[in-house]
Amino acid sequence: MLYNQRPPTGRFMSHNTFGHLFRVTTFGESHGVAIGCVVDGCPPRIPLSAADIQRDLDRRRPGQSKFVTQRREPDQVRILSGTMVDPASGAEITTGTPIALLIENVDARSKDYDAIAETYRPGHADYTYDVKYGIRDPRGSGRASARETASRVAAGAVARKVVPGMRVRGALVQMGEITIERKRWDWDEVGRNPFFCPDAEAAKRMEEYLEGVRKKGSSIGAVIEVVADNVPPGLGAPIYGKLDAELAGALMSINAVKGVEIGAGFAAARLSGEENADEMRAGNEGQPKFLSNNAGGILGGISTGAPVVARFAVKPTSSILTPRRTVDRQGAETDISTKGRHDPCVGIRAVPVGESMVACVIADHFLRHRGQVGESPQWPFPPRKK
Closest by alpha carbon to 174, among 259, 105, 71, 48? Predict the structure, then answer.
């Protein structure tokens, strides 16, 4: 088959959409006119306003502290379709039709990338995009930019409303060699420091540490933990629709993520069978109570009703001032130093992104479960009183 011919099926897969019943398609580039998404499959009559979405976007927005990129983007979202004012209540609600969300780019500085337009940045997707498509957008990495994740956060704000009572929260639990002390975990502290860190003492150490990294023009990685509470039991499906497998795939799709674990994750390899087993006792309303949660709220790919817990590792930002060896598009060896506005720890703003991806996956499985089996005896959650 010639390079420019269509494959035998006559179909191309662009892979800009994820989800099955709750489907999200994102669009736009870092330095384009706008970015956004289309959310399809959201049930009707769910209260939804731009303010609901803006709250999450504001948490991810760049330029909020010296520890993130200084690109000044207000990230104001506009709802273009899929909602209307309910005549009965006067509130804005979903209609069941596609919800189109638009976020304009207002502070792109494409000239910052002119000097490296023909050079591949180590650690970036420059080479791989070029070798796949034969063309790449050097302006802020184009579609490969973390700017795309704002669209995911907007979609996640919609997803949070699909599952009744569900709460999804994230926190940064490690930055470089600095880890939190879990005995000091405080969800309220997450909103008090610029790192989304649940440990006030660790946050202070991170501030001093990251300031040194930033002044050097370098970067550092991080680990983020996302916890979803009040997830109904029964979500997910064996064998190829496992909830944990699709959570892992969704989190791995976030820019710069290089590792994902569910529950105890890799630490389970150090546990005995006795230590790892989440023993059960009788709980309320006939539901079992798990005495631990090494499974991260998922067994056999299906939710247990315990909190769903996932962690993901974010690599250091590849755009740094330190000169690095590379090659250009012609194959000539050269050195490169990336200037411009970049996050010294991109993991900070990945916290609301991780929350959104978890919310989207669980919302999708919620609708898939309801479509296949309806309301099982365990639903609604908590179970009906007898």
Answer: 259
Reduced to 3 states (helix: H, G, I; strand: E, B; else coil), residue 292 is: coil
pLDDT tens for residues 234-249?
999 999 999 999 999 9
Residue 40 contacts residue 23 (beta carbons within 8 Å): yes
Q: What is the amino acid identity at position 42?
A: C
**Beta-carbon contacts of residue 97 (< 8 Å; ≥ 6 apart):** 81, 82
Give dist(CA 230, CA 241) in Å, integer.
Answer: 21
Q: What pLDDT is stored for residue 31 in this prediction?
A: 78
Are 281 and 297 in contact by the 8 Å Cβ rule? The answer is no
Taking alpha carbons only, the member of 190, 161, 156 closest to residue 173 is 190
Q: Is the pLDDT of residue 115 over 80?
A: no
Classify 260 as helix, strand or coil.
strand
Which pairs count as long-range contacts for 194-197, CB under 8 Å and 24+ apart, including other chains? 194/64, 194/65, 194/67, 194/68, 194/348, 195/67, 195/348, 196/59, 196/170, 196/171, 196/172, 196/224, 196/348, 196/351, 196/352, 197/171, 197/172, 197/173
CA dihedral 185, 190, 193, 199 (to 10 degrees): 10
Vertex 358, ends 355 and 364: CA angle to 5°?
140
Condensed to tens digits (0 to 9), the pLDDT of residues 176-218 reads 999 999 999 999 999 999 999 999 999 999 999 999 998 888 8
Is this structure's pTM higher than 0.85? yes
Find all residues with CB under 8 Å of 118, minimum gap 6, and list them. Answer: 328, 329, 330
196-69-145 Cα angle (round to 5): 100
Q: Which amino acid is residue 322, in one-letter code?
A: T
Reference 218, options 342, 351, 122, 86; nearest CA is 342
36: which residues sit within 8 A by CB, 6+ positions away? 26, 27, 28, 100, 101, 102, 103, 151, 154
Residue entry with tokens 């209609």: 95
Find the angle CA(384)-CA(385)-CA(386) to the nearest 5 degrees: 115
Give the residues across from 17 on adjacent strands.
Answer: 25
Residues 83, 94: contact at Cβ < 8 Å? yes
Site of tokens 């409303």:
161
Q: Does residue 305 contact residue 232 with C-beta atoms inside 8 Å?
A: yes
C-beta of residue 346 within 8 angstroms of C-beta of residue 224: no
